[in-house]
Amino acid sequence: MPRGHQKRSRHPLRILSDFTCILHHIPTSVTPSARQLLTMAPRSLLLAALSASTSFLAQAAPAARRQEDNLARDLATLKAFAETITEDPQNIKANWTAAGDDVCQWAGVTCAERPDGVLAVAGIDFNNYEFGPALRADLILDKLLDITFFHANSNSFTGTLPDVSALKYLYEVDFSNNRLSGMFPLEILNAPLTFLDLRFNNFIRELPEKLFQMTDLTVIFLNNNAFSGPIPDIGPTFNTSYITLANNNLTGPIPDSWANNQALTELLIANNTEITGVIPDKLCALPNVTLIDVSGNSGMTGRLGPKCRQYAKEADRDAKNPPKDNSTIARIFNIEGTGLTL
């Protein structure tokens, strides 16, 4: 890591600006850098936007709610899911019991009006609730047909994830720091996702090619699993800004096609000891890139190309003289623990 590195400022992710369904007219939110997200649970972008938009919430949560059929359906789903929770260290279920059948008052549940004016369960935020002992996502995720985000960081979901092709509004999924296992859950890619966080689980085997053909994904966090095999090529419409694949068992080179991702801002692919080769030189010249971290990839050897050498110089300069305002983000370039040379 460059000397004198300072904590990086937060910067905007313009995911929300493209939403045209339930959560239209919501201000754009912000997210921490990918480096911070290696250890920190991100707050829901949608939840932050909803919280910031008091007029939207006031409109979406009238004093006298109609118990629409869809709310009755979602209430039944959540009650059935609650029955499977026998570990509840924060006593969240007591709040649910007190709220009764008014599901929009349940802790972790956000309601909003659909475009047709019907009140709906629009999001779930179970982050850090520590529910357990062995929860199943297929008892809740694919049953809430109107949700736009489902965040469940730091619980005890096990198994895999269900098919979400019926969830036409689902943009954010966060199951980080759970106990999910098996191969990458391809079914989760059947929703129009912009944000996918599966960090700190027990997934294995190869990363699917389909993941790197997605069009709208802006954030992919898959670090601290046991993914293996080669890094897939990216498709021509892949425009993901924040990618974290660190602390897996990936092998082979970083494909040259990754230099075609014009939206790339931060790439953390550290501590995959069997990744080989050098960083594709054109990747270092991408217009938006501010962080490249391949540290700990001991299989990477050779001299970096001229564009990466130039980027390394700029990152070193930023480390010694950090930007004094938030309009400029300090570049980071980390090749420690590799055989790469400048």
Automatic annotation (TrEMBL):
Keywords annotated in UniProt: Cell wall, Cell wall biogenesis/degradation, Hydroxylation, Repeat, Secreted, Signal
Main subcellular location: secreted
All copies of domain Leucine-rich repeat-containing N-terminal plant-type, residue ranges: 72-111
InterPro entries xref list: Leu-rich_rpt, LRR_dom_sf, LRR_extensin-like_regulator, LRR_N_plant-typ
Superkingdom per UniProt: Eukaryota
A Pfam family of this chain: LRRNT_2
Keyword Repeat among record annotations: yes
Subcellular localization(s) per the UniProt record: Secreted, Cell wall
UniProt GO BP: cell wall organization
Entry annotated with the keyword Mitochondrion: no
Name used for this protein in its record: Cell wall hydroxyproline-rich glycoprotein
